[in-house]
Amino acid sequence: MPERPVIVHVQESLEGGDVRVTVTLSWEDEEFSGQAVGGTGDSTLPRLVGEATLHAIEKVAHDAITLDLSAVATQELGDVRIALAQVDITNLSERFVGSAVIRDDDPSLATVRAVLDALNRRISLLDS
What we know:
Elements: E1 6-15, E2 18-27, E3 30-38, H1 44-60, E4 67-77, E5 80-89, E6 94-101, H2 107-126
Antiparallel strand pairs: 1-2, 2-3, 4-5, 5-6
Helix pairs in contact: 1-2
């Protein structure tokens, strides 16, 4: 059994003038999905992906925690692009930062990985 959630899929769809992002994670033989909906701007998509990821993680933790995406960004670092995420566990007053290399020109997947990187060391404790 994995100690950390596994990314099942990241789905983005257009609905009218908005984008709906669904992130599905697998954890302890169950799948947990989170969604976020918002505008179609370039800076909006990474935030929606991050928020959908946090909603899925909150479900993994059976809503025992409240998560907030304080910041999300992509950045050049040397010759690679990375996704960065700053996550607050608001009911515990804790803040974490995660990062992930953008591979295969897929910043959405890297954003999910960055959010998970910020929280992975805590996730096994969240479900207990």
